[in-house]
Amino acid sequence: MTVRTIELREPVMARNNEIAASVRARLAAAGVPALNFVSSPGSGKTRLLERTLAALGDELRIAVVTGDVQTQNDADRLARHTTRLVQAVVTGGACHLDAKQVETALEAIDLAATDLLFVENVGNLVCPASWDLGEDAKVVLFSVTEGEDKPLKYPKMFRQARYAVLTKTDLLPHVPFDVELAVANARQINPELRFFHTSAHKGEGLDEWFDFLRQLARRPVPA
Amino acid sequence: MHEMSVAVEVCRLAEERLTPAELPQLVTVGLDVGDDAGLEPNSLLFCLEALLAAPPFRGARPAVNRCSGDVLRVTYLELDDDRPDD
Questions:
Q1: What's the number of CA atoms in the CB half-sphere (13 Å) around residue A11?
Q2: Confidence class of residue A127 from pLDDT cuts 50, 70 and 90?
Q3: Do A2 and B2 touch (CB under 8 A)?
């Protein structure tokens, strides 16, 4: 028998990354900054986006792509707060969005009439870290009902994120959550992380978040 | 958690690189999997073994090399043409 070895050294994610690069180039050409929202399930991604669309929807033209394993519930919730199309991606079991799904979703979005793109990923702090979607930045959310050690447990996601949103701060009087420790843990993983402390329920911290988005919509984020 | 997605992508790469006649000759798929690649190697092996047991493959063996960083790549494909030595 003849055994033959073909050397490859081919990144497994090469195809996804090619599509992500093409998505990024399209968004950059259209001047549309894109944020990829990642968190564990139940951290409040949809709630934050609901409040954001309700507050900024008249001011900024925000397109939304939202992914869920099953149901279009999140898309339906978000659609109540915007007149624009909310693209639902039902992954049918997959634990993350991939670049191809975002590329397909962009076909129905008029980028020339868009100031900002939000991609709400599947709730999962592990897998979405491995799939580049062509976003400018990842926004990682975690809530005060989760442990302060979340960044230490899921370092890849916190390393990749440029922004972190601590959510549900209105519950701080009721839960044993040390904000300083949580922030220190996150900065230990990623010293550059910019933090927002928010309660989408009560509105605390949202003005700073909205101002950040207004500025972002005026200038594309550096790659 | 997403090991099956990665395993499917590994098989797609192999199918892209090999001719239809070569696919059943595939005996080993070499992979580098970094400690920070976000994958559980045993789970990846399990998924790959399942996929590589079905046509167009014929039971190729995945060989995982653990390394540091977030590397995730197919390093080599080993083929056996099943012909007796000359």
A1: 11
A2: confident
A3: no
CA A74 to mean position of chain CA atoms: 14
For the segment A157-211, what is each residue's pLDDT rounded down to a tens digit? 999 999 999 999 999 999 999 999 999 999 999 999 999 999 999 999 999 999 9
Which of A8, A16, A95, A157 is the best mutation test for B, with the most CBs of B within 10 A?
A8
pTM (two decimals): 0.87
Chain B residues whose C-beta is within 8 A of a chain A C-beta are 1-2, 5-6, 9-10, 12-13, 17-18, 27, 30-31, 36-39, 70, 72-85
CB of A138 within 8 Å of any CB in chain B?
no
- CA neighbor of A124 nearest in space, from A65, A190, A175, A67: A67
Per-residue pLDDT for A223 more than 60?
A: no
Record: contact A156-B74, CB cut-off 8 A: no
CA–CA dist A206, A213 (Å, integer)? 11
Task: Quote the percentage of chain B above a pLDDT of 70.
Answer: 95
Give the C-alpha separation, A99 to A37, whole Å: 14
Q: What is the DSSP letter of A223?
A: -
